[in-house]
UniProtKB/TrEMBL annotation:
The chain crosses the membrane at residues 234-253. Residues 1-28 form the signal peptide. It comes from Terracoccus luteus. Keywords: Membrane, Signal, Transmembrane, Transmembrane helix. This is CHRD domain-containing protein.
């Protein structure tokens, strides 16, 4: 059994901003990993935030993500986006080509690119599941706590993620603040849906961590990794597992292998 030490980013965590998530597969020390702070997409009126981490092992990825401030109890499609021609960033005000004061998914495309991974809870994760609303998180209480491993991607997508050229986007916006997806404007992706259901809400570019892992100081927590890949103490805090602090975007970060002997 291997012991790994994790460090928590040294920001102050307000209790209301802490999202607990039980994490399964541990992040292996020798694999590439990238992380993102998820922030509101400009012009879309969302006040949420979140964090995401992706581990890349060859052409297999593990995604861990947490967010808050979303429309509660409604499906929120979430994806990893990439296109070689994209800017590899989140949309800017200048991407609002229609001038209607909001950013829809197509308008955000030049910034973040096409869907390359659908972050569904079960089943297919390909771009074909980009609108599989029955398999995305429904954000109970406005919060998402997501973790999924063994996601297969192409070598090109794996390389793009590893190089920090991909972007995580969570969709679903309540423009008129009535607590549901509705309105006369139809989705640019599926005219059977209102645009609120598919407009981008939170966005973050996945960037490469410094050598040895992303870190900002703070406390450390040690966990055991068994042969089944389960980590018993990753980001443990008060009996729960801390993934993100939404007010700060702080994320679990520094890790090192403290007992490679016997691994």
């Amino acid at each position: 059994m291997r012991t790994r030490t994790y460090r928590l980013a040294g920001a102050t965590f307000a209790s209301a901003a802490v999202l607990a998530l039980t994490v399964g597969p541990a992040f292996a020390a020798d694999n590439a990993w990238v992380s993102a702070n998820l922030k509101p997409v400009v012009e879309n009126g969302v006040k949420g935030s979140g964090t995401a981490m992706v581990e890349v092992d060859g052409t297999t990825i593990t995604v861990t993500m947490a967010a808050m401030g979303l429309l509660p109890d409604a499906p929120h499609a979430a994806h990893i986006h990439f296109s070689a021609a994209a800017r590899h960033e989140c949309p800017a005000v200048t991407d609002d080509k229609s001038g209607d004061g909001t950013i829809n998914t197509t308008e955000g495309g030049p910034a973040y690119g096409d869907i390359v991974v659908s972050l569904t809870k079960t089943g297919d994760t390909s771009p074909a599941s980009g609108l599989a609303v029955d398999r995305f998180d429904t954000a109970p209480g406005g919060k998402i706590s997501y973790e999924r491993g063994s996601i297969k991607v192409s070598q090109g997508v794996a390389d793009a993620i590893t190089k920090g050229q991909s972007v995580v986007v969570i969709h679903g916006v309540d423009h008129n603040h009535d607590g549901k997806y509705d309105g006369d404007t139809k989705s640019d992706l599926d005219p059977s849906l209102p645009t609120e259901a598919t407009d981008p809400a939170l966005c973050g570019a996945l960037r490469v961590a410094p050598a040895g892992g992303m870190h900002t100081g703070g406390g450390q927590i040690t966990g055991q990794t068994g042969q089944d890949g389960t980590n018993t103490g990753m980001l443990a805090l008060g009996g729960g597992l801390l993934l993100a602090a939404a007010g700060t975007g702080a994320f679990a970060a520094k890790r090192r292998n403290t007992a490679r002997a016997g691994a």
